[in-house]
């Protein structure tokens, strides 16, 4: 598979999918991120955990360019993107989901996905209706199958359950050959059954697609990640494997002592 070949090439060169070098983000006197150094390998699945206000969502905003960094550098696949706007980072293979669903509720599930696929192609400004063999339409249908929404593809998004809307957001993030996806609390508000399905979807993603997941449900996060970064007060507190983090007494005290995770 082309994606797998690309992953092998990146891994053989030792190039990271993401590098943060002394990244800080200040809001006036408030220091939301403080000298964060972080590397994520190509194809790696990383969880970022921490209590309320730890800096997790601010970290995502710095990576995507939604908030410019106050200090430090951000690199994607070896390229310095610190001063690039969000859309340029998207063109380089970065994708993101948000805590609050950002969907076209009046359009069908398939139309939402088609627009996401078409939006990263050269024909994104075309007003013509797609033909049945349109490549973007075919990709949209395959993505909906991957996230188990093919049976509701003709429904308006407004008629989907909350869990199905979160599944749709994953399909949108998969459009346009992503190389690194940032998932911002995808399990928030889901039922136990929906969380199990979410885990299945994330575990079945192609291996060349790496991701970082902020998740308040540790059971979900530790099942879908191969490495974990703990944050506290805008800094990296500890890193390790899911097993190391789960059994770490300091992590347990910090995490459980704050009643779990939330908007970081």
From TrEMBL:
Source organism superkingdom: Bacteria
Query: What does the UniProt keyword field contain?
Result: ATP-binding, Nucleotide-binding, Transport
ABC transporter domain: residues covered: 18-258
What InterPro entries does this protein's entry cite? AAA+_ATPase, ABC_AA/LPS_Transport, ABC_transporter-like_ATP-bd, P-loop_NTPase
- Does this entry carry the keyword Cell inner membrane? no
Q: Enumerate the GO terms in the molecular function aspect.
A: ATP binding; ATP hydrolysis activity; L-isoleucine transmembrane transporter activity; L-phenylalanine transmembrane transporter activity; L-valine transmembrane transporter activity
GO cellular component annotations of the record:
plasma membrane
Any matching Pfam family? ABC_tran
Q: What PROSITE patterns does this protein map onto?
A: ABC_TRANSPORTER_2
Under Gene3D superfamilies, the record lists: P-loop containing nucleotide triphosphate hydrolases (3.40.50.300)
Q: Name one GO biological process term.
A: L-alanine transport
Tell me what this protein is called: ATP-binding cassette domain-containing protein
